[in-house]
Specification:
This protein has helices spanning 16-25, 35-40, 67-86, 96-103, 164-169, 238-249, and strands at 4-9, 29-34, 50-53, 91-94, 114-117, 125-133, 148-154, 158-161, 173-178, 200-204, 210-213. It is an alpha/beta fold.
Length: 250
């Protein structure tokens, strides 16, 4: 059976099509569904095998990046989300979607508070970055060892938590920013575009099913999408999506 991916769409969300293309390239069927259809029960989360929350300026980010979308997820679908994790559904959130999963309480989980706040540069960052998969706990990064390359496009992407050491010890830091030469970014700008401590680009929950990250891996699943086309450190992000799709069938 080909896994089905639910991509919820809110007002202002603008990266749902890119995310659908990435999951289709990974061998899944992707369906972009308005939140209104989910609220009405016309479409249900349990009809799908994966959930992917896209990036974009949901609700115009008028009250903070991902805040209203996160409230939607927590307020309308909290029970469905927790039931989805219990039945081992892989869940993915990118950029604004990552922010929404944090606000909804799915990430980092285990009562570890975290926020995504203004970039250290105090400006919107739009540039290509290199990522190192760094968690064997996450079903999305387990088995991935090669660096990934993709763009970022965010103004509030700095990951802040009071227990970074705990997340590292629990193998919940899934992706880290790298310098152009493949070494650790060490919070140096612009290799680390937002100033996240520990060069954190993405985190997983304790189950390894839920992944949130700030960069946009959906924008580098085909070689033609990279303006440098392999002339720098970091490769395609398609293996990230393939790993999530494969987890459904394991």
């Amino acid at each position: 059976m080909t896994p089905r991916v639910l991509i919820p769409v809110a007002l202002g969300t603008n990266r749902d099509h890119d995310l659908a293309v990435a999951f289709k390239a990974a061998g899944a069927e992707a369906e972009c569904v308005p939140l209104t259809a989910l609220r009405s029960g016309e479409v249900r989360l349990d009809q799908f095998q994966l959930l992917a929350v896209p990036g974009g300026f949901s609700y115009g980010d008028a009250l903070g990046a991902g805040r209203l979308l996160g409230l939607d997820l927590a307020g309308w679908f909290a029970d469905q989300l927790h039931a989805a994790v219990e039945r081992e559904m892989p869940i993915f959130g990118v950029c604004n979607g990552f922010q929404a999963l944090v606000r909804a309480g799915l990430l980092p989980g285990n009562n570890r508070p975290a926020v995504l706040t203004a970039n250290g540069s105090q400006r919107f960052e739009c540039r290509w970055v290199t990522l190192q998969p760094s968690s064997q706990r996450s079903v999305w990064t387990n088995g991935l060892s090669e660096p990934l390359r993709c763009p970022v496009a965010h103004g509030e992407g700095r990951f802040v938590t009071e227990d970074l050491e705990g997340l590292v010890a629990a193998d919940q830091v899934a992706l880290r920013y790298l310098a152009d030469d493949g070494t650790a970014a060490n919070q140096d700008y612009p290799a680390n575009p937002n100033g996240s401590a520990g060069d954190v680009a993405g985190v997983t929950d304790a189950t390894g099913l839920v992944l949130g990250l700030m960069p946009h891996p959906e924008d580098h699943v085909h070689t033609r999408q990279d303006p440098l086309r392999g002339r720098t450190t970091g490769g395609l992000c398609l293996p990230l999506f393939e790993a999530g799709v494969a987890a459904v069938n394991d």
